[in-house]
Structures are given as structure tokens and as C-alpha cells.
Amino acid sequence: MDFRVLPSGDLTLTNLTAPGCLIGREAPLETISLSIRDGRIAAPAPGLPQVDMRGAMVFPAFIDMHTHLDKGHIWPRAANPDGSFDGALRVVEADRVANWSGGDVRARMDFALRCAWAHGSRAIRTHLDSIPPQHRISFAEFTRLREEWAGRIDLQAVCLTSIDRIDPQGGGEFAEIADLTAESGGVLGCVTFPDPLLRDRLRAFFAHAGQRGLHADFHVDESGDPAAASLRAIAEVVLETGFDAPVTVGHCCSLAVQPDAEWQATLDLVARAGIHVVSLPLCNLYLQDRAPDRTPRWRGITLVHEMAARGINVSFASDNTRDPFYAYGDLDMIEVMREATRIAHLDHSRDDWIQAFLANPARACGFDAPSLMPGAPADLVICRARSWTELFARPQSDRIVLRDGHQIDRSLPDYAELDHLMS
What we know:
Blueprint: E1 11-19, E2 29-37, E3 40-42, E4 50-52, E5 57-60, E6 62-67, H1 85-99, H2 102-119, E7 121-129, H3 134-148, E8 154-160, H4 173-183, E9 188-192, H5 198-212, E10 216-220, H6 230-241, E11 247-251, H7 260-273, E12 276-279, H8 281-287, H9 304-309, E13 314-316, H10 333-343, H11 359-365, E14 380-383, H12 388-393, E15 400-403, E16 406-407, H13 419-422
Helix pairs in contact: 2-3, 5-6, 6-7
């Protein structure tokens, strides 16, 4: 249960704790009051019923900018045999061919969205596996769900295929995928890795995106191999072509194992190109540097501190949930924030890392920026914690979630709902 039941209607919440960067102040944490009137945040107003929140921390509802709703919750029928990246690729491909009908994909995506809603997310970008003929099945179901969830969770979809399936001459199946992505109001994406024709394929990719007015979102160098350096190629081709729509790259794991001179030069190019980066610490911690009977030697994530120091827009997101790429997760951005803080040592650092779960992903994706300022929707997540250490010490399973000023039912769907899909 939530730690408190709030009265319905307009009211003022007093004695809240908020990150200073969310309210235009320099202190790491500030004590504030928030009035809610007609579903929106208002300046504190006399005469409204007041509720003392006893120092509870408040955040705007979160943005999860890199997920895989179409893969989610297949673990019971498609477990990763060894926890490796290659094992995940093999199992997902087999499960997609065998099971990903429209009804299967729809049921699992809707289940995941109900989890995200209960945890306090207001916007999600998902990648959709788009190897034909799956692209038409999954985009059709996603489009219907986007309409059904309108007003609750804003949704974006990114097509997902591999760079080696893109014809450098601009034709082939990727042109059809790009057309469908544009018709669906989506984002153009693919997975990049070392390839002899990488730059030619990237030029074709950006030509497709430019012709259709699409943003770009890549899975990049999800590897512990220092030779995986497609991020640098992406930045160089963006600068070479003058592609001016937003470009996002995710993972970028291999940067952390490259020589200093190499990653420094790459990040300088990424900053010049204005590329957004999203780190996926939970999935990368799970997959990277995994070997039988051997303790991993690194955490798998990219160089977020070095990126932020260069002014690169850095975000964090959930990535996979209960599928062969990550056996756990529930699209809970407080869990992502808690674990990212531990894994990437975000503590004892800058005071605005909270924006990597709010304003930064909004900027990268074009979602409305979450805000605690007057006039913003009263879409809030309130936790029974008065400081960062209290927040991160517990999972905050009793948090309060408000949408349009109303406290929502945070009951999570039962995994048993999906049992009929797992046999």
C-alpha cells in the first residue's frame, strides 16, 4: 500500500523535499510546498486544504527512453541458457519466429505498460524488433496500444534491425522498414558494430532518415571489445553529412575498455555532433564481461561522467525486462536510478544527475519536459524518504503516484496473467 492516502481534490502539499535543480535552486535538496489545482501544479495558495508530507521526496513522473516492450516477459519460455549476449541473441530470434504473433506481442507490451504506470513513468520509448515480417506485426500492435494509452503514457517506437542489413546503395528491405517507421510516427534505428562497410551503411541510414524526416536512435558497441568503435563512425558521419535531426546512441560499452586517447577523441566528436547518449546500467551489468566460472572485471556501462563533463546529454533507462537480455527488471525508474547511482558512482558527484531520468531523456526524445514548476501537470512520484540515502536504501515500494493530481491505484499486474503465453 502507499505510505499515505491523500485527500481528493485541490490541496497543498507542505514539507516536501525536492532536488534543488528541479526548482531552479542551487542546494542539493530543498524543502518546498506544492499546490495542486485542477490537475496542475499551482503556486502555493491560501485556503486550500494542507497536508504535511513530513519531508517526503517528490519528483515529476519519469521518462524511460530505452526499453524493449516487445521482448518483455518471455523469460519463462525463453530463458538465456548461459547469461551471455550471444545466448540472448539466439534465444530471442528463436522465440520471435515461433511465438511473436500480434496477440502475444500485444499482451506482453500491455502488461509492461501497466507496470510502468504503477511505478510512475509518464513517457516511454521502445525499440521494436523489425526483421521482416515481424516489423508489420509489432508496429501494428504498438500503434493500437499507443492510442489506448494516450493521456496516461506517451509512447514512441524505434525500428530495430542490424547495420549489416542496410544496403549502402539505399534500397532493399531497410527502405520498407523506414517507410513503415515513418507511417507509424516512429524513430529510425539499428544496431551498429564493426563492419567493413560501416560508414557507407551509416550514410545510407541517415539518407533514409533525412528523406523521411525521422530522428535516429542506435544500439552502439554493446561489447567489451576495444575494437568495437562504431560510435566514432556515427559521430563522424553525422558531422560529415550535416544530419541535423536528433541522434541518440545507447550502450556504448566498449568506450570503457578503450585506451584513453581513443575514447577521449571519440567523445569530443560526439559532443561536437550533439549526439544524445543513454546508458543502460542494469542490462549491461548483467551481460558484459560474463564468462563461465569467472568473476566479471568491469561494470559494463559507458563513460557517463566523462560525457557529462563535455556537455553531452546523458540519460539512463530500463532497457530489457524479464527476457534473455536481462532476466529481471520491471520498468521501474526509481530502481534504475538507485542502481545507476551505485553502479556509476553518481553520488559524490554533480547535483543534477536526477535530470538524467527526467529533463535529459525528454530533450533527447522530444517528450514534454517533466517539471515541478507552476503550470506543469501534477504528475508526481512521492517517496517516504527525506534524503538521498533514505531514498536509495529501500525500493520505495510504498511510493505515491499522482497523475493529473489524482492518486492512482498502484496495483501491479500478476505474472500469472501471462501463463497462457508461456507454454
